[in-house]
Write a structure and sequence with these properties.
By secondary structure, this protein is of the alpha+beta class. It contains 21 helices and ten strands.
């Protein structure tokens, strides 16, 4: 089978068959070149200009490496590689930044991926030319196949690629992960991807890299400020807020470039693009770091109301106060979706329990609440935020102590 070699800065040469190349060359996949992996993070890390396309190729490559290590047959390897390639075709422009627009309509990029796979005839035809069925791809990306955890699980091709890739392109030295050891020490045990207990050090290394990437790249205060500013404008426009209801044809017509131009040419949002182009970013007035369950409920349910109250307390205009509640999702270690370890026995691999303080630390959600404003209002918004959150934290502490 003729192979094309694609030079990747993270994995070296990625081998692609002529049939797979036809899938890569579809509009749905090529669109990913114009969707940033880390939207607006280049304002902090200038090298962070890589795309969802780069990541999807890397995920395809690692999915194939997992398939080889697991001893899957040629057909299942093809399925797994294409599932890795296509797992992100449903992303909105600006990746996870606009995910909230889908979520508010009861959808997400995974659901949009499945919709595109089902309704995009060009993509479906290209998949069929690989001599595999669209149904089998859908089973993997929708989490219904035994190999689904290789694409989306506690440890998967997706995370192993983006952690290393994002570290490489930002220059932040947190993605030092022994990816090869994890892949070679993986087995399918009870239809779940399991890691040999001898490779636990590599898993802990990955968990630490994940935590550091979140804290220093994904949740960087300046990057998040630019993203929240951009998102606040995008939500004002019907052309963007209508993503969940778009046809596949219309949805695929949008990428980072179209959204930037729409916002730049609209009177409501032109000032936001102007600020980002000149790197005039809101500043942090207040920051609160909390563990799972400690976040005041109204911050998540009604953030607009929180802004109203802080504006009232501070005297700063509402449209110059922004709230952000990003979080590090838990790395499942103690529940039904937990990381599974195994050891080799006379009867083959068997699950084994392992206690790791580092994995325990990353097994709960960690949230950051930030209030942003423009420099003229920093001090008054800081004082108002301290009063607002101080009262709620005090009430929470009293309830927790049973007083």
């Amino acid at each position: 089978m003729p192979l094309k070699l694609i030079k990747d800065p993270v994995h070296g040469y990625i081998e692609v068959s002529s049939e797979e190349l036809q899938v890569i060359d579809t509009r749905a996949v090529q669109r990913l070149r114009r969707i940033s992996q880390l939207p607006l993070v280049y304002l902090v890390y200038p090298g962070a200009r890589h795309s969802r396309f780069d990541h999807s190729l890397g995920c395809m490559h690692l999915a194939g490496e997992f398939a080889k290590s697991l001893g899957l047959d040629e057909y299942r390897m093809k399925v797994l590689r294409l599932a890795g390639l296509l797992h992100d075709v449903g992303h909105t422009p600006y990746s996870h930044l606009f995910e909230t627009i889908l979520e508010e309509a009861g959808s997400n990029h995974e659901a949009m991926t499945a919709k595109i796979l089902r309704e995009d005839s060009e993509l479906a035809e290209a998949i069929e030319k690989c001599s595999i069925t669209l149904k089998d791809i859908l089973y993997v990306v929708e989490g219904r196949a035994p190999e689904s955890t290789i694409i989306s699980g506690p440890i998967d091709a997706d995370k192993l690629d983006f952690l290393v890739r994002d570290s490489y392109f930002t220059g932040a030295p947190y993605g030092l992960i022994d990816v090869r050891r994890i892949v070679l020490r993986s087995r399918l045990v009870n239809n779940k991807l399991a890691i040999n207990i001898n490779a636990v050090g590599a898993v802990e290394e990955m968990a630490l890299a994940r935590y550091q990437n979140y804290m220093n790249i994904y949740l960087h205060h300046t990057a998040r400020a630019a993203q929240i500013l951009f998102l606040s404008g995008a939500k004002l426009l019907d052309e963007i807020s209508g993503f969940p209801d778009m046809s596949v044809e219309e949805y695929l017509s949008h990428d980072d470039y179209t959204i930037w131009c729409i916002m730049k040419n609209n009177d409501k949002t032109r000032w936001i693009i102007d600020r980002i182009e000149r790197r005039i970013i809101p500043k942090v007035a207040y920051e609160l770091r909390l563990r799972e369950g400690e976040i005041p409920a109204e911050v998540l349910r009604t953030p607009g109301q929180v802004i109203d109250e802080i504006s009232s307390l501070s005297g700063a205009p509402e449209d110059r106060i922004w709230i952000d509640t990003p979080y590090i999702t838990s790395l499942p270690f103690r529940n039904s979706e937990e990381i599974v370890f195994y050891e080799e026995g006379d009867g083959g691999p068997r699950p084994v329990e392992y206690s790791s303080p580092l994995l325990e630390f990353t097994s709960t959600m960690y949230a950051i609440v930030r209030i942003y404003t423009d420099p003229p209002f920093l001090e008054q918004v800081r004082l108002a935020s301290e009063k607002y959150f101080g009262e709620r934290i005090r009430i929470f502490s009293q309830k927790s102590s049973g007083k």
